[in-house]
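[step 3/7] inverse_fold.run input=structure_tokens len=177
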């Protein structure tokens, strides 16, 4: 959702820039209409640079890399979790006892049932740690994206305020004609 909002903000900022450029062009035309001298000034005054056209009408928006990485790693971890979750995968307990290494066997009690219970708790704690790490990375990515979008909103607010003043001024000049 944040990436979609970032794309919308980027398009809005580009539209405001285009409106500002169009307003400058209209002010040049008003000067030409207003007087002969204004037309001469516009003739010798350099034209404002044209902005490059957008590709297929949709500007590119790149979410910050931290958010992209967090989303990708989150999807990878989610798929790994779904593969290992007992309710989401086929039951195959034959390799459970074989997968415990000799080092891990020494760390657990000698009672087989108690050892299996401790192993299960450790596996659950590992999964919880992995999930919390995933949430932390997503939260940091979201924070960075929000901060970047906040900067875009501040820029956009300043541009819109300036554009509003220029539109009011141009409107007043047109009404005087």
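[step 3/7] decode complete -> sequence:
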């Amino acid at each position: 959702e944040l990436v979609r909002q970032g794309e919308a903000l980027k398009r809005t900022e580009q539209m405001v820039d285009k409106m500002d450029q169009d307003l400058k062009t209209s002010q040049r035309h008003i000067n030409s209409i207003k007087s002969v001298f204004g037309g001469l000034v516009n003739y010798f005054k350099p034209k404002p640079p044209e902005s490059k056209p957008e590709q297929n009408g949709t500007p590119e928006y790149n979410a910050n890399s931290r958010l992209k990485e967090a989303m990708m790693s989150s999807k990878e971890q989610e798929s790994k979790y779904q593969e290992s979750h007992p309710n989401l995968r086929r039951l195959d307990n034959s390799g459970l006892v074989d997968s415990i290494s000799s080092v891990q066997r020494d760390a657990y009690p000698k009672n087989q049932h108690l050892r299996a219970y401790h192993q299960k708790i450790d596996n659950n704690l590992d999964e919880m740690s992995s999930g919390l790490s995933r949430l932390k990375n997503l939260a940091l990515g979201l924070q960075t994206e929000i901060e970047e979008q906040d900067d875009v909103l501040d820029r956009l607010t300043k541009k819109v305020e300036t554009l509003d003043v220029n539109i009011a001024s141009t409107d007043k000049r047109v009404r005087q004609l």
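[step 4/7] annotate
The helical segments are 2-34, 36-44, 65-84, 102-107, 112-176.
The two ends are 47 Å apart (CA to CA).
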